[in-house]
Structures are given as C-alpha cells and as structure tokens.
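Regression report. Comparing outputs from two consecutive submissions.

Submission 1:
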Amino acid sequence: MIIDRTRILVSILILVGFLGVYYVLSRPIEAEYNRLMVEYVKKKQEVEKARALAKSFEKLKARKDSLEAVFREQLQLLPEEEDLPGLLDEIIANGRRAGVEFLLFQPQPRVAKDFYDEVPIQVEVRGTYHQLGRFLTYLAYARRLLNVRNMSITRENIPGSPYTIRAKFLVIAYVYKGKRPAATPSSQKG
C-alpha cells in the first residue's frame, strides 16, 4: 500500500512538473501567438481598405475622365483672345437683328480670374419690351458664354412711341487665357 501511495504521489509530482514546464514554456509562445493574431487582424483590415480603395479608384478615374471631357466641351464656350472681336460683332448683330437701337456699347477693362478673363461691356439700348426680350434671348443662346448683369429698365417718353424703353446693363464676355488642353487618349475613346 505504501508503494501504491508512493507511485500515486510520484505520478502526481511528475504530472505537476510537466504542467509547470508546459506552463513556463507555453507562456511566451501564447504571448507571441496573441501578438501575431492582433497583427494579422490589423493587416487584414488594411488589405480590405486597400481593396475598397482600388475599387473606388477605378470609379474616381472614370469620373475624372468624364469631368475632363465636360471641361473641354465647356471650354469651347470661352473664346480665345483672337475670337473676341468676332464675339463683339456678334453681340451687336444680335441687337440689330432684335430691333434695338444701341445708345452705348463700351468695352470695360478686363477682370482677371483663374483661367479666364471677364470682359465687361457697358450696353445701353432703346426699343420695345419685346425687342429687348428678343435681344436678351439672342444673348442667352449665343454660341459663346455671355452673362448679363446690373440691368435697369426705364420708360422712354418719346412722343408717338408710348411703348419704348431704355435698358442699361453689363454684358460679361469670358475669354480663355492660355492654351486649350490637348485631347487625351482616354477622352478620345468616346
């Protein structure tokens, strides 16, 4: 019986010894395992973010190409320097076609902006309400970008012409400064 107790006691001591050795040896391994798991989760999140960015990059690139095409198209509405005299002639021709009488047509000093200049033109015309409306419509549908600002309309007291009005306003013509961007291969795919 003493032998059996001794065997059990020795077995328990050996078992405790193995557990102690296991605990001492496995502790650093478990700590390293936990550190690697945290690092793995972080890297996995970074990879997921990178995949999401890669997907959005293609969408953003397509959007950029689309916006560049629209920009080039809209840029055609801005005359270049050498087109300005023709544009001024077109404004006058539209006024005459509408039937208004020009009392003043005076280009003002340019106002520089980012990539274009504003060329204000002080205009004063006389005509009927409908003639003025036609003239403004012609300006709105001109082949180049124009803007009308600071309009004032007054009634003219002309004997025999009870429906005559006088309008004063600024026509803003926009002139592109610089060279037009060349078409890029991605924009020519159309």
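Submission 2:
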Amino acid sequence: MNIKNENGFSLIELMMAIAIFAVVVIATGQTYFLFQEYWLNASREVSCQARGRTFLDEVGRTIRNSSGVAVSNTSTTSTMQIATIDGPIAEYVFTIADEAITYDDNISSANDEVMVLNNVVELGDDPVFAREGDRRVNINFRVMDPDTSDNDGYQGSDFSLTTFWRN
C-alpha cells in the first residue's frame, strides 16, 4: 500500500486547522467579554444618571414652587429646608457618613424621613446644598455605582442644578 495515494489530511494539516480554529475561538471569546464589560459599564452609568436626574427634577420643582429655602452645612451634613406655599417645611439632608440624601416632607413630625438617593458623594470641596444670593440655590453631587470598585474605570455621574424660588 502506497501512503502517497491515500486521501485525507496529514497530521501537520490537522494541527494547523486546530490551531487556526483555537485562535478564532479565543479572539471571539475575548471580544464577547470585552463588549459585555462595556455594556455593563454603560448600564451602570445610565442607572446612576437616571437616579440623579429624577432627584434633581423633583427637588428643582419643589424649590421653584416654594416660598423660601434655607441651607445649612456642617462638616458631616448638608441640609436644605424648603418652605412650601401651602404647607409645612420640607427638608432634604445629605449625610457624608451615610452617603445618602433623605427627604422629610414634614419636619414637625419625627422619624418619617425617606431616603431618596443613595451612594451620593460631594464634588470636591463644594457642599451638596448651597444658597447663593437672594433666591438662588445650587445643588452639586455625584452618584456612585455601588457595584463598581475604584479600579473599574467608571466612578459615577456628576450632577449640578442652580434654580430660583418664588417670592
């Protein structure tokens, strides 16, 4: 029997085909995992932005419809009290230790605060709530993603609002 006349693949051809197939599978897998990481980071960013934007819309509307705003800042908290036109004084409190903003729709009744935004940090040295001039309030903060460590690349979304209230 003559080996040269037999049909089929040689051992070298078979090894080359397996090597090429392995390279294609590894490249495809790496691309898949890279795109999955990009998608997760983008979905985290969208989630943080939606939470912060919803909070800013709500608090901005409350401030614009109020009759006055008082702001006080300490080393551990930033507090904004809002006098509503037809009711009690509402209060937003940012606590550095809790990394959260709570809302109390009636400060005359105790222990009815509701957390409205968590994983919040200050931007630089600026307090979260600041009053400027006669009727202007600045709100600055960053919403962090709780599932992201510092080396994941995505740190959070920054938010800023300057608004006025009625007289």
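Expected: both submissions complete independently.
Actual: both completed, but the second showed a warning that disappeared on reload.
Relevant detail on submission 2: The chain has a mean pLDDT of 83.
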